[in-house]
Each structure stands twice: as structure tokens, then as C-alpha cells.
Design a protein that fits this description.
The protein is an alpha+beta fold. 37% of the residues lie in helices and 20% in strands. It has 26 helices and 24 strands. Helix 1 runs antiparallel to helix 2, helix 3 runs antiparallel to helix 9 and helix 12 packs across helix 13. It is globular, with a radius of gyration of 28 Å. Bound molecules: 2-(butylsulfanyl)adenosine. The site of 2-(butylsulfanyl)adenosine has 16 residues, from strand 3, strand 8 and strand 13.
């Protein structure tokens, strides 16, 4: 059936509008409408397309959620070969001098002629992708492959939200854009946190995560692993007036709506490149994604042409690496550490190795399951990864180098700090010391966490001092930190009066904080920095968070049943609430947020009802959900948050399971609706 003209027009308007919002959200980082509004438009488009499949355009945002699994990827012959760049492992900033000298020599520039301008950018650590836009519409995405022929990964690349499905402005007939698909550190950590919590295999590093996602045959699975993208160059183009410099090309790509990394500059001569190298080196740990170096490109495209290529590498570009984020070393011992929640973490003591810019002697093995899976043994040669300011980890074992007669590591049955039994619940990945606050290790870790940079940020309250404060029984709970005085502190080992007063000043300063920092500082199991932020944003106040039952907690994006249970258990402990009250009495405070969530707790959440519910009619359920700001949709999509399943639920339930959407029963729904703690 042909769609009426006005429906077709509406569909195209919706596509344009949705992509506009996508761009604001994912490229400009500046959301223009609430999620719920976006969902409404999205569902309207979905419904139109369901009714008139002929209207499904290649630039429809509905394609971003992934289609049918593929049997294999088809080969794609690149119109312009995808070359690589010469990579120099020189990690000194001054390495730029030899590149500049080489370029000047090749161009036969006489001594004393003006310096060359270079476009300096980051070397992203992901997977190179060619995006082909025809008349502005994304038609094909391909991997690099051998440079001549890659693989067609269009379906998976469409799931990358920051990649426009249609270019903005007046688009050329053909425009191929090259860039890197990668996984941000936050997305990587979040994904792995979830995998580990459910005892599943974690991704090795963000690079592998990106490559594995792009090369995933089932696009619905790919859609569950969020990737990002930065454009850094061109492939074929037809009907486009190319600017004169590389920097202007990138500006043009940004104007077309592509994500282009903000950390780039035009650097004058070797001096400019050296300054860029140093600036980025200092920034590297704080970047939200992995880089393995910087890339220098001759900025003027006419000069690039003049320089040309040697074999498969351009003479006009070079990559300069930073110290590697993964290195080999050997395991000297395996020990266990007791965390703030009693979690027993196996730790590898390593032969010192320089990795990610620092010398590393310890690396985490995460938990027993992961230790078993990797089967790390004393004497093994292992790959260690340290990226950003996260704890270094053992990524894998080089089995070929395993010494003969080595033994698998057995987890101890008793806590090394307090001697209490170590228990591991069947359904959990983590073994725990059962000593609770009796265990000095747990207490110390909880205090260190409380004081850490991303929590209350008490500078100077480090391991050595916390050890003494706990061992001397001066500090038992975080409240005691705010009772410390100069005299008491100055008597401690290695504590000069000056550092004692600095510490007191830092403690005092920490009294003024934010809600998300405070929630994170509490050290609730399974509540990391990202979740703490989500909770603060959703609930707006600590009271609302404490009052929320598990159903309500699960309404927070990314909070599933496990995290919700941890939070509810934490606040159900009277002494935890007491400590919070005492902290506030000691002057800890933060600006109160809005209480929107309290009034409309289901805002932005999309439900699908299926099957017969035991007591409620569908109408009744729908009305109650809507009264609290939620939406009830007719069909399941990747945008659905909850499927409420009753008896004889059919294909909707299957689809929810396939898409990994949370399925709840009527009781759980009632809990969300009521917010009464059971
Ligand atoms: S330019 C002809 N710029 O590093 C020059 N590459 O070979 C083409 N990469 O495969 C590459 N960041 O995947 C360029 N800012 C950047 C890059 C970059 C990462 C990757 C790319 C390429 C490899 C080097």
C-alpha cells in the first residue's frame, strides 16, 4: 500500500527532527529535548514505518537500534585505498623535530624559510572506518581491512549515535569520511562492571571492545555496546569543493554534523608540535577515551600532494606514540585485598613495569571468576593494562611463557586482615569477608574511599594516615574524620604540624560538596561514580533517594535489580542512616536539586504491557503508569525500558528477551507505582 502524501511528509519531518536532536545530544553534548519527548517522536516514526514499510528510508533513526543478524559481512572495495601512517615509537616530545626536518628536506625548502604549519590531532585507539555518504545519506560503512578491501559493517555503524545518518547542509554527491570508532572509558568500565557483576566475561580493553562490536554479526548486540566516533580524514568525494587545508577539512566535516575531536590545533613548525605533544601528554589520563599518541599532518593539502606517499604511507603525516598502556611483565606473587564492602580482590604483585606513563607493581585480577578464567599463576608473564587514572589490571597471560610446574591460585577461606570467614554467594561473582565493620581492612578501605578524589576529595587523607587512625581507634566511621583536631593529628607518625593543619583545612573544605559526590562517598556496593550521578540527577535529594524502594530505584537509567537491591539494603541499615545524619550534623552539605522525580517518578520511562496481569486490567495499569509520568507503548523496541508480562505473554516477551530489556511482573510494577518499602 502506498502511504498518503502527508504521512510520507510527516515521516521525513520526524527523521529530520530526530536526527537534529541526536546531533545536539551526541555530537554537541547539549540535549535539546527531554528523553521522553524524543521517545515520543521516535515511536511515532516507528509506527508510521510499521504501517508503511516502504517509507523506511536509509537515514531513518529507527535503523539505529539494529536489524537482523547477518550470516557474514560482505567485502567492500575502497574507492580510495585506506592507508596507514608511519608510527614512530619515540615517546619524547622532541621527536617532532626529525619529522619536521624530513618534511622540509622532501620539499627542498631552503634554510631559514618560514616554518610549516601542521595539523596536530590525537591518535585514537579504536578501529578505522570509512563512511560513505551519497547525496548526504549514509549508504555504507566499511572497515579498513587490508586497505584495498574492507568489510561492510553499515548496520553496526548505524548504531553509533554520534554518526549522522544524513549530513547537515548542502551535501556533495559523494563524500567519504574516515575516522575512528572507539569505546569511551566510561562506556567500557560500565559495560565491564555489569559483565563482572553477572559473572560474565569482561572486555579486554576499549580497543578490543570497539573492534568486537563493529565485527559483531548481530546488530542488536552491537547496539547494546555504545561506541563513539571521531572523523579525521577523507576518502573519495565527488561534487565537493575541498578546502585548502586539513584543518579546514575537519571544520567542514564538523559543519556536516560529524563528530570531530576538540583536541586539535594548527601547530607552527617543530616547536608547535612539541608543545602539542606535551599538552596532550599531560592531559592523557583525564581524556574520556584511550589514545596511543598524537598525529601530525602537513596542514596545507597542496603540500601534502607534493609530498605524496612512500609505499603505503604518506610522507606528510606521522604518528608519535606515548608510553604504551599495555606492557608485559611477570607475576611475583598473588595476594588478596579486602575492599570497603568486604569484597576480596585478588591482586598480582608484579615485577615493576613502566606502563601508561607510570611504574606499576600491582594489578587487579578483579574477582575469583575472572582469575579462574584467565588462570593467572605466580611466575606467569602477563599483559598489564593501565589507562587513565584507573587501577592497573592484568589483561591476559602469555601461555607460551608459562614456567613448568606452576600451580593455579586458590582463594583463601579466611580474611587475611581479620580472620573472619570468606563467603561467596552462589549467584555472585565476588567473595567477601564476613567481618563487616569489625574488619579493620574494610573500615580502612571505606574511609579511603570516602576521602578519595571523586568522593569527598580530602587531600592528604591517604593510606598511611588512615592506617594509623584506624589502628589507634581514633577514627571508626567517616563522622570521626570531622572531629579530628590539630593536637591529635600532630602526634601521629610522619605528620608535621604543617601537614596536619593542611589536612584539617582539606577536611573542612570537604564539608561543602555535591549530592552525587556524597552518594558516591557512602561506598554503597555497586554504586560507582556514574551511578551516583544518575541517582543524584534522578532523585534530586538524599531524602528522596533514601525513601525509594527497589522498584523506584530501577526507574533510574542503568539501575537494574542488583544495583537497586544494594542501594535499598544500604539504606535499610539503621547505622548507615545514622552516620549520614551525623555527617550532616557535622556540617557536610550540598545544594539541593529539583524534586521533579518525586512528582513524576516514571518520567521518560517506556513500558509495554503483555499477557494477562493477575489483578490489574491493562487499562488500569496504563492509567497508573501514565499518572506518574510514564508511557505505555504498543510494541517492544530498543527504546522500551520495561516489559510488564502477565500470563500467556507472547511475542512481545520474546522480543524483550532478545533485546535484553528488563521484564517485570505485576508485583514489581506495583512496587514502582507505590514506592512503599517492603
Ligand atoms: S590519519 C593516510 N589520523 O591510526 C592517513 N589516523 O595508521 C590515514 N588513527 O589506521 C590515517 N587516529 O585507524 C589518522 N587522527 C588520526 C588517527 C588515525 C587514529 C588510526 C587509523 C590508522 C592508524 C594509523
Amino acid at each position: 500500500m502506498n502511504a498518503p502524501v502527508d504521512v510520507a511528509a510527516r515521516a521525513s519531518q520526524l527523521r529530520a527532527e530526530l536526527e537534529q536532536h541526536n546531533h545536539s545530544y551526541y555530537v554537541l553534548d547539549n540535549p535539546t529535548i527531554p528523553d521522553a519527548e524524543y521517545d515520543k517522536l521516535f515511536q511515532e516514526l516507528q509506527q508510521i514505518e510499521q504501517e508503511f514499510p516502504a517509507l523506511i528510508a536509509p537515514d531513518s533513526p529507527t535503523l539505529r537500534v539494529g536489524g537482523k543478524p547477518l550470516p557474514a559481512f560482505s567485502p567492500v572495495r575502497h574507492a580510495v585505498p585506506m592507508l596507514s601512517i608511519r608510527t614512530e615509537t619515540d615517546t619524547e616530545p622532541s621527536g617532532a623535530r626529525s619529522f619536521d626536518a624530513r618534511v622540509r628536506r622532501e620539499l627542498a625548502l631552503p634554510e631559514g624559510s618560514p616554518e610549516i604549519d601542521y595539523a596536530a590531532e590525537l591518535k585514537f585507539d579504536g578501529l578505522a572506518i570509512n563512511l560513505r555518504y551519497e547525496n548526504g545519506v549514509l549508504r555504507q560503512a566499511a572497515t579498513r581491512g587490508d586497505g584495498e578491501t574492507g568489510e561492510d559493517v553499515t548496520q553496526n555503524v548505524r548504531t553509533i549515535r554520534s554518526i549522522p545518518l544524513r549530513l547537515r547542509g548542502v551535501a556533495p554527491e559523494v563524500l567519504e569520511i574516515r575516522g575512528e570508532a572507539f569505546m569511551s572509558r566510561a562506556d567500557f568500565d560500565r559495560y565491564n562492571e555489569r559483565q563482572r557483576a553477572s559473572g560474565k566475561a569482561a572486555l579486554v580493553n576499549p580497543r578490543n571492545g570497539a573492534a568486537g562490536t563493529i565485527r559483531q554479526l548481530d546488530p542488536a548486540l552491537a547496539a547494546q555496546r555504545p561506541l563513539s566516533f571521531f572523523a579525521y580524514g577523507l576518502g573519495e568525494f565527488v561534487g565537493w569543493h575541498q578546502p585548502a587545508t586539513h584543518a579546514e577539512v575537519l571544520d567542514a566535516l564538523a559543519a556536516f554534523g560529524l563528530p570531530v575531536c576538540e583536541y586539535r590545533t594548527v601547530a607552527g613548525g617543530a616547536g608547535g608540535l612539541i608543545a602539542f605533544h606535551q599538552r596532550i601528554r599531560d592531559l592523557r589520563d583525564q581524556l574520556p577515551f584511550d589514545i596511543d599518541g598524537v598525529v601530525y599532518k602537513v596542514n596545507n593539502l597542496a603540500l601534502q600532494n607534493q609530498l605524496g606517499f612512500v609505499t603505503r604511507e604518506p610522507r606528510w603525516a606521522v604518528a608519535h606514540k606515548y608510553p604504551a598502556q599495555e606492557m608485559l611483565t611477570t607475576v611475583e606473587a598473588i595476594e588478596v585485598q579486602v575492599g570497603r564492602t568486604g569484597a576480596i580482590t585478588p591482586v598480582a604483585r608484579l615485577a615493576p613495569v613502566f606502563v601508561g606513563g607510570v611504574t606499576v607493581t600491582n594489578a587487579t585480577l578483579h574477582n575469583e571468576d575472572e582469575l579462574r578464567r584467565k588462570d593467572v599463576r605466580v611466575g606467569d608473564t602477563v599483559v598489564v593494562r593501565r589507562a587513565g587514572d584507573v587501577i592497573p589490571e592484568v589483561v591476559s597471560v602469555v601461555l607460551a611463557k608459562r614456567p613448568a610446574g606452576s600451580l593455579s591460585f586458590d582463594m583463601p577461606g579466611q580474611c587475611p586482615a581479620c580472620g573472619s570467614a570468606i563467603e561467596k554467594p552462589e549467584d555472585e561473582a565476588v567473595a567477601r569477608c564476613t567481618g563487616g565493620l569489625f574488619c579493620p581492612a574494610q573500615r580502612k578501605q571505606a574511609l579511603l574511599h570516602f576521602a578519595s578524589r571523586k568522593a569527598m576529595d580530602i587531600e592528604g587523607l591517604g593510606e598511611k594516615i588512615v592506617d594509623q587512625l584506624v589502628d589507634l581507634a581514633i577514627v571508626k566511621t567517616p563522622v570521626d574524620i570531622y572531629k579530628l583536631g590539630l593536637l591529635g593529628l600532630a602526634t601521629m607518625e610522619r605528620m608535621a604540624e604543617k601537614s596536619a593543619s593542611n589536612l584539617l583545612a582539606a577536611i573542612d573544605k570537604s564539608r561543602s560538596t555535591t549530592l552525587n559526590r556524597f552518594i558516591y562517598a557512602l561506598g554503597i556496593r555497586n554504586v560507582g561514580e556514574a551511578t551516583a550521578k544518575d541517582l543524584a540527577r534522578h532523585f534530586g535529594s538524599l531524602e528522596a533517594l533514601i525513601a525509594a524502594n527497589q522498584g523506584r530505584l530501577q526507574l533510574v537509567p542503568d539501575v537494574g535489580p542488583i544495583v537497586a537491591a544494594s542501594i535499598a539494603h544500604f539504606f535499610a541499615e539503621a547505622h548507615n542512616v545514622e552516620v549520614i545524619e551525623q555527617l550532616r550534623a557535622a556540617g557536610v552539605h550540598w545544594p539541593e536539586g529539583t524534586h521533579e522525580a518525586a512528582a513524576m517518578p516514571l518520567a521518560g520511562r517506556i513500558f509495554v504491557l503483555t499477557g494477562t496481569l493477575p489483578t490489574m486490567s491493562r487499562e488500569e495499569a496504563k492509567e497508573k503508569i501514565e499518572r506518574l509520568g510514564g508511557k505505555v507503548a504498543g510494541s517492544v523496541s530498543a527504546k522500551t525500558h520495561f516489559v510488564v508480562a502477565g500470563a500467556e505473554a507472547g511475542s512481545k516477551l520474546d522480543k524483550a528477551t532478545a533485546l535484553g530489556i528488563q521484564v517485570i511482573n505485576e508485583t514489581q510494577l506495583q512496587e514502582m507505582l507505590a514506592n512503599e518499602k517492603s
